[in-house]
Design brief:
Length: 316
């Protein structure tokens, strides 16, 4: 089946692509709507991602891929493992190709802001950094085009189309959505809380990134739960989004500094590189200062839902 036919099949299925309805009667209804929304987002941005010129198109395709993987994990108890295992593997493969381009887009945006803040005489040397990023992105876009033009990607779209129309439900998909989502979000939050409690006094960048990895599916589950569980869950979702943003800013700065360590550039441009690095470090310091506040606000939102975080002293 061609990509265009798959897209048409999905977009013509109005029932499958409908948004999650408040107070859905079963978790199966919520699952179907969530998966279809994610798949529709991926298909809608397929063309832009192929061209690679639209930064937002690549971003949205990556978001769709991430949400699909996260939601398949959250809803695993009501989905048969066999049909979803291959989807997980292929979505991870697709996400890596999209992520390579997206990470370069984020870094280019950051470093462009840093370069604009340089003294006019040093700005030209800073522009060489942006040109280097653009050259790397061109290579990544070519690789992404190969992924999106492959038989494996077409097969993935076909499998997603089947999943949208007929999710591989277990009998437990008939359980009430409210009960299932409440437990699922609480479990996601508990894992996130345990990871934060286990952090050392001065956490390393990779340790905080691991926390962000856990926060992402917590956010996606809470956003879905808000339609069923109400405004308190919506507030929880916003607070975990704030946490993701703070930790994301820190991770983006860490990646930028690592790239600056590796980039090959003329020695006489070292001053501009140093100024850009200083700006990135300053932004990382701000992110490190902000994420504990975001975490505290998230804890308050969880407490409102009777999900008070366990004191770290009670854990073994």
């Amino acid at each position: 089946m061609s990509t265009n036919l798959i897209a048409a099949s999905l977009l013509q299925n109005g029932e499958a692509l409908s948004a999650p309805a408040p107070c859905s009667r079963s978790i199966g209804e919520v699952v179907r709507a969530a998966l279809c929304a994610d798949i529709a987002r991926l298909v809608a941005h397929d063309a832009a991602a192929r061209l690679g010129e639209d930064v937002e198109g690549v971003h949205q395709a990556r978001v769709a891929t991430r949400r699909l993987r996260s939601n398949l994990g959250t809803f695993a108890p009501v989905l048969r493992a066999g049909p979803t295992a291959a989807l997980h593997k292929d979505l991870r493969w697709l996400g890596r190709a999209l992520g390579t381009v997206r990470d370069l887009d984020v870094m280019r945006d950051r470093i462009t802001k840093d370069v604009r803040a340089l003294d006019p005489l040093a700005r030209g040397d800073g522009l060489a950094l942006i040109e280097t990023i653009d050259a790397e992105r061109a290579v990544a876009v070519e690789a992404l085009a190969g992924v999106l033009g492959s038989n494996r990607y077409r097969s993935l779209l076909a499998s997603l189309a089947v999943t949208a129309v007929s999710p591989p439900f277990r009998r437990s998909a008939g359980l009430p959505a409210e009960e299932f989502l409440g437990a699922a979000i609480r479990d996601r939050y508990a894992a996130l809380d345990a990871a934060v409690a286990a952090l050392p006094a001065v956490a390393q960048d990779d340790e905080l990134h691991a926390v962000r990895i856990l926060a992402k599916p917590t956010r996606y589950a809470a956003e879905l739960g808000a339609d069923v569980l109400g405004s308190q869950c919506g507030r929880f979702a916003r607070r975990v989004t704030d946490l993701c943003d703070a930790l994301g800013d820190l991770n983006d700065g860490s990646k930028a500094n690592h790239w600056l360590d590796q980039v090959t550039i003329a020695p006489w441009r070292a001053f501009a590189v140093g100024r850009v690095r200083a700006a990135e470090i300053g932004r990382m310091v701000e992110a490190r200062a902000s994420w504990p506040r975001s975490w505290a606000r998230l804890g308050a939102a969880a407490a409102d839902m009777a999900w008070t975080a366990l004191d770290s002293s009670t854990r073994t």
